[in-house]
Design brief:
The chain is of the alpha+beta class. It is built from four helices and six strands. The strands form two sheets. Strands 1, 3, 4 and 5 form a four-stranded antiparallel β-sheet that branches. Strands 2-6 form a two-stranded parallel sheet. Helix 1 (35-46) packs across helix 2 (50-61). The termini are far apart.
Length: 129
């Protein structure tokens, strides 16, 4: 049986396929999802129907790249310790301080990279560490 884990998923806004060329390190990876897959994921996570998920993706979150008809996400899996598994079994929230700190670092890194004058060009991978 695989180790229990929690998935961190961040939908990225105002990006295109070139974002997938960034190698974020620290276990994070950037993936693209087709429009239907992203809508299904938002629908499941938000507990709403596909139409409402689409509206949220477009108007509220701004994370659907309409030109490419794709979503881009940053993702990382965190293994749960035996203590954290027991907390989850009691329907309580485990301490995910590591995930919070990692996600803040990721957001800061992406903000700096995407806000800089450097352009990511196709065919080249850029390390961010």
């Amino acid at each position: 049986m695989p180790d229990p884990q929690v998935q961190f998923i961040a939908f990225l806004s105002n990006v295109d396929h070139t974002i997938t060329l960034l190698l974020l390190g620290n276990g994070f990876r950037i993936r693209e999802l087709p429009e239907e897959g992203g809508i299904a994921l938002i629908s499941r996570l938000e507990g709403v129907g596909a139409e409402m998920a689409y509206e949220r993706a477009e108007a509220q979150f701004g994370c659907l790249n309409r030109k490419e008809k794709k979503f881009f996400i940053a993702q990382k899996a965190y293994k749960l310790s035996p203590d954290q598994v027991e907390v989850v079994k009691r329907n309580e929230m485990p301490n995910m301080t590591e995930m919070l700190i990692d996600s803040i670092k990721l957001l800061m890194k992406l903000s700096l990279l995407l806000g800089s004058s450097k352009k990511v060009t196709s065919g080249r991978r850029f390390h961010t560490e």
